[in-house]
Amino acid sequence: MASLFDIGKSGLQAYRQSLSVTGQNIANINTDGYKRREADLGEVTSGQGTQGGAASKIGLGVRVSEIRRSFDSYLQNRSRTATAQFETTDAMVGKLRELENMLLPGDAGIGNFLGNFFGSLQAVAAATAKHLNYHAFNNNLKIFSEEMSKEASHN
After folding, report:
1. I need a surface site. Which of 1, 48, 60, 144 has the fewest CB within 10 A?
2. Number of neighbours of residue 4 by Cβ within 10 angstroms
3. Rounded to the nearest 5 degrees, what angle is found at the Cα of 85, between the Cα atoms of 155 and 30?
């Protein structure tokens, strides 16, 4: 039969190990990615091992049966989903910025070429000297077509 001192000693050792786990939790409270750990204590019975050679059903003390990480799969799945949605949205915003830069008014933007194209088209329709305006329209149409081809080849 195990002595009371052996049982007490096993209890102190188990709680010392549990306090060590608690200390690690406190020390790492602000560490990104650290998961809280818990120590599970279990009874030492004669079938699990003896202290002092006892072979009866009397408890022989306590031991740390397992140290496990606290884990919340729901929160981790939500975090993964949010990250994936952010990445998708971020990629879409990048493409929209590229499109916006192409269409915004400016000397090199498609908006400028579209404005020249439709201005020439309107001049052809409204002018009396259609021959001169037709050449300007045709030239702007050619420039617009080249710019659209360049943009299409970049994407």
Report:
1. 48
2. 9
3. 125
- CA dist 14 and 63 (Å) reads 5
From 21, 18, 19, select the one nearest 63 (Cα to Cα).
Answer: 18
Domain count, the chain: 3
Domain that holds residue 96: 72-103
Q: Dump pLDDT digits (tens) for 71-84.
A: 777 878 888 999 99
If asked whether residues 17 and 66 sit together in one domain, one would say yes
Helices (H), the chain: 4-27, 73-103, 110-126, 130-154
Model-wide pTM > 0.90: no
Does pLDDT of 54 surpass 50?
no
Contacts of 45 (CB under 8 A, 6+ apart): 57, 59, 60
Helix (H, G, I), strand (E, B) or coil at 65: strand
Residues 46 and 88 in one domain: no
Q: Which of 146, 121, 155 is nearest to 136 (CA)?
A: 121
SS3 call for 63: strand
Specify whether 81 is located in the same domain as 47.
Answer: no
Tell me which long-range contacts 123-131 makes (C-beta under 8 A, separation of at least 24).
none
